[in-house]
Amino acid sequence: MAAVVKKVLLASPRGYCAGVERAVETVEKALALYGRPIYVRKQIVHNLHVVRDLEASGAIFVDEETEVPEGETVVFSAHGVAPSVHANAEHRKLNTIDATCPLVTKVHVQARRYAADGYTVLLIGHEGHEEVVGTMGEAPGSIVLVQSVEDVHALTFATGSRLAYVTQTTLSVDETAEIITALRDRYPDIHAPKKEDICYATSNRQWAVKEMLSEIDLLLVIGSRNSSNSNRLVETAHAAGIAAHLIDDEIEIDEGWLDGVEIVGITSGASAPERLVIRVCDWFRAHGVLTIEPYRLVDEGVEFRLPTELRRELALAETQG
User: How far apart are CA 233 and CA 172, in angstroms?
Assistant: First the structure.
């Protein structure tokens, strides 16, 4: 392998997005403010390493808010939750910190407004994903999930029906465009968001991979199996005929993948910390690869403020401290 692989190219942008940075920092700040334990509903972000690190710091991850002892502090994950979750938390007198990504909150607000205005909302997304579950909870009787062009063809709404669509934020840009085109073909009067719902980070990381594909023989995507945007990066490469694999870290690299490969591309999903990229690069160096360089340098420059309730408590603690 060492004699064959000549170069590793690093995609840019890659790794943490602003919503993930905000969510992880929220748990870290809450632990520092309140002490152990801090409960977190679902994985704060979809990355195994991040979850393990936060567990080691005192975070306790639970599947449902009903598992949190009454009166304790719970952080809601970046993927968003349904209104019923907030209601349950209030009933249990939980101190809640909502780390939902602001771009996911935007989709929730859109879906709620469309439903309130009498529209049936078509949610383009993947069944069972936490973001989709949360969004559908905003108006359960008014939202229909659409996962594919085939689903669009199976819709039975009459021409002239009051329809609108929103999308999950971490989808394939190309596949979503195909679904939206199919929706517009069937229902020309369908209402659309003023700005697309797929988040900047998901779009940018797919764009960065596409730009790099002509230069590489193999793509490694660093991210966990349940990370939607990481899986979409693998699919982006496959759609162009380039071999690609999703790995949690360097331990999962199969040297057999590298047979006959001269240039390897590396990227990471929006929930994967940069230290994992460094570890994968170190693996290649240890296997004799001398040239590891960025394919391009792009600074996204997006930042989100911490959740309001946490900022308020932090400010209060500072004045009292």
Answer: 8
Among 81, 100, 119, which residue terminates a domain?
Answer: 100
C-alpha–C-alpha distance, residues 47 and 15, integer Å? 11
How many folded domains does the chain comprise? 3
Does 319 reside within a domain?
no
Which range of residues forms the domain containing residue 64?
A: 18-100
The sign one gets for the Cα dihedral 219, 206, 238, 222 is positive
CB contact at 8 A, 274 and 15: yes
pLDDT band for position 159 (50/70/90)? confident
CATH number of the domain bearing residue 225? 3.40.1010.20
* Catalytic residue ranges: 131
* pLDDT tens digits, 240-258: 999 999 999 999 999 999 9
Q: Which residues contact 286 (CB under 8 A, 6 or more apart)?
A: none
Buried b (16+ CB within 10 A) or exposed e, 84-96: ebbebbeebebbb
| Cross-strand bridge partners of residue 98 | 76
Q: What is the mean pLDDT of the chain?
A: 96
Span 199-254, pLDDT tens digits: 999 999 999 999 999 999 999 999 999 999 999 999 999 999 999 999 999 999 99
